[in-house]
Amino acid sequence: MKKVININFSGRLINIEEDAYTSLQSYIESLKKYFSNEEGQEEIIADIENRIAEIFYEKQTKGATSITIVDVEEVMAAIGKPEDFEAQEEPNTKTDNHYQSANKQFINRGRLYRDANDKMLGGVCSGVAAYFNIDTVLVRVLFAVLLFGAGVGFLLYIILWVVIPESMDVQTSMEKRLYRNPDEKMIGGVASGLSKYFGIEVWIPRLIFAAPFIFAVIRGASAIAYHNFFNDNRFWTFGFGGTTTVVYFLLWWIIPEAKSVQEKMAMKGEKLDLNSIRNNVQDGIKNFSDKANAWGKDITNKSNEWTKNMNQRTQENVARVNTIARSTSNKIGHGIGLLIKGFALFIGGIIAFALLMGLLGILIGGAGLWPFKSFLLEGGSQTTLAWGSLLVLLIPGVSFLVWIGRRIFKIKKNIKPVKIVLAALFFIGIVSAIFLTGSLLRSFEYSNYSKPDSEIAITQPTDRLLVTVKEAEVSYSGELPWVHLNDNGFDINRDTLKYANVKIKIERSIDSLYHTSIKKYSRGNSTEDAEARAQKIVFQYSQIGNTLDLGSHIAVGKNEKFRAQEVVITIQVPEGRKIQFDETVDKLHPFNVRVNEVWENGRRKYRRRERVYFEQDYNFDYKVNEDYIMSKDGRLELVNKPKETPKEDDLQDKKEELEQKKNELKEKEMDLEKQKLDKQIQELEKQKQKLEDKKNSTFSSENTEELSLKNPVSLAYIHCLM
Amino acid sequence: MNLDNTQSQMKKGILEFCILSVIKKGEAYPSDIVEEMKAANMQILEGTLYPLLTRLKNAEMLSYRWVESSGGPPRKYFSLTDKGEAFYNDLVTTWRELVEAVNKVTNQTN
Question: Of A484, A676, A685, B109, which one's alpha carbon is 20 to 30 angstroms from that of A441?
Fold first, then answer.
């Protein structure tokens, strides 16, 4: 019993027995391999495929129901096998430079190249895989994990892309390949495929992927039994769980599914892959026909085994659909691949540009910070390491310029020595940076926080204590012309670093007296070192009468180095007594170097989750020029509670309200005036009447005139109203 | 040093010449070329022929056109270009000189 499948071969539909098909595929693969160095290899292969298709088609029209292994062998005999070509032509003897050496691919073994024949982006992964003789998919997975996991995968890829030369002659001799196994799958067949690849039991990868969920269950159960037992192992349950899930889906996406019999066998590492045909030729195996027969039988046996193991129908469907759809889906797949590639290149370009800009930024920033090194670095080793660390910033820039230059001027000359030197320098830079960071961390490791306060003797103020900072505010003097700083509260010159890290802390006094104490803090590589540095902090203060005058900054000498020195002034105010901060207190700019850490016995102790802000009570948010009074619970309270300042909206409302009232009043006023005038009119009319009455009797008109003169406005009004 | 090797070495150089000769007679389909050469007892594998044709085509010695066939896929028919013609004529001259030279040399040794 032999299975017959339909294939679309060079545009013809061919019925072919499965073993014949496998043999044919291998044969064409061997030809592809053989001609891989030939100019126009695709054309040659296409021509040969066309010819084979023609022969098969002829056979079918002559009545053959399907193509058998014998037919395939016939074709192979007519067209010839790679070793037969070898006998007929010796490519190396060709004088025409169009003719390339087909043997070239064996010359360059053992060197790392990017594989131009099998690439998604730059062929880095396939090249690396070929070099280490492992599966390309595995390398791609690794890079993908690095990319999504830490983001370094991308950088690494770009660097390798630039550094590794490209070659068409990369030879892959992997027989075992990583595939997803569709036959023994729970979700995507990833675990099963992995187990086949590594030759381990399938439950091992499954357990690894499932582990976080199992842990989650255990944790849930143990949370009841042992309260919070797994509390600190969140890594296993959440972090790790998320990671394995992401990795699983990533693998699902990257690893191809083993669809054909060939792929399934390659997945298991069974030696069906005839890609190594050239190697066999090289090894002097001449009898290709016998070999092919043996393989054919082998394949038949294997596929019988397979059919036993799997659902026949699914298999058939998969095979048929796969083989028929292969050419079309490959085209579509290729199109999608190109799209994704284009998109990836676009994104890559953007990221590369951003990286370059970032690098430039760091470079400029780093150069700007350089003058501070003498205040930061102590001893020859730290300075040397700092110089070394500069390489981390310089080398990528230089490499990028070299790369761009080579691209622009199309320089093909081998610059491997230069690359090696650059890589070595970069490595030195990274190592230096790591050591420098470690060294600096050690320099900041200890503090003298446990040191007791040193009280300043003050005369008790009569009314209230006024805190002022009369000293001029420290600001950058510009002695180092390449440093540009606009912020106040900071100054640097060659000998001294000044900054306004002075904190004021208010406490309730234990007795009825004001107390003031000063603490000088520093870091160091030991408590003693920190204390010694703290002692050398220069800070001025004085007290005259009711006024406590603080210096505007602390000064650190070049030899003391910057070790996050600070000064804390603690003022203890008795209950019910007053204190006022002058506006000059704004000259102080306290800052904190510490975050997310706690201190124990003067040594820093890191905690991962708890965020302890050590000096939260130093937060100075008092109003200036206002009297504060010490309350019973140790807090300062304002003596004069601020009046509520009206808001703009309120004012507007009030204005409108008043305007409306004004209008109303105006109307009322007019009414009133009218009434008044009416009254006057009536009066006048009465008088007129009277006068007329009198005129009628004895009086002259003189009086009338007098009246009109006396009240002209009223008359005018009368006129108007009438 | 084996005979097969030497024989194939001898044949190799003249393969292109033969192929060009066949095509010179008129447009030719690769399997026709194989048939014609076989008929003349000159063995060539199609797998050897196709790359040779492609190389010659890429070197602008040959051009081809697609011809629909009754059954099966369309076929490539090859013909000589002007450059190919000149190349062929050079080869003819070379061949004649070579034959003459070889004859002379072999006759002397006999």
Answer: A484
